[in-house]
Amino acid sequence: MDQMTVTKPMDNFTLCPKFEQTFSILGKKWNGLIIEVLLNEGTLRFKDLVVNVPKCSDRVLVERLKELEQDGIVARNTYDKSTKVDYSLTNKGLELRPVMDAVHSWGDKWFG
């Protein structure tokens, strides 16, 4: 009969808080796709994001955009004397390009 292996926590291991914070952002449903769309398409209006992130409800998309804006990854751009609003990546968001490229490479290798 097989013995069940019990894994005990590693005594000296702790996750880096910055690593945890990064994955709390990137690991949240839809955030990666929103970032990827903005990396590839550039500045977009909300209606264009809706088209490019089709399975995400409008309510959730608004919520995610607000969160990404609070995290300094997305900028919500408004224009004087206009109701026009669009969204773009900040420099912080643009610096995610190599991360997203690495995710693509990994996915191509293991799921392609």
TrEMBL record:
<dbReference type="InterPro" id="IPR036388">
    <property type="entry name" value="WH-like_DNA-bd_sf"/>
</dbReference>
<keyword id="KW-0804">Transcription</keyword>
<keyword id="KW-0805">Transcription regulation</keyword>
<keyword id="KW-0238">DNA-binding</keyword>
<protein>
    <submittedName>
        <fullName>HxlR family transcriptional regulator</fullName>
    </submittedName>
</protein>
<dbReference type="Pfam" id="PF01638">
    <property type="entry name" value="HxlR"/>
</dbReference>
<dbReference type="InterPro" id="IPR002577">
    <property type="entry name" value="HTH_HxlR"/>
</dbReference>
<dbReference type="InterPro" id="IPR036390">
    <property type="entry name" value="WH_DNA-bd_sf"/>
</dbReference>
<feature type="domain" description="HTH hxlR-type">
    <location>
        <begin position="16"/>
        <end position="112"/>
    </location>
</feature>
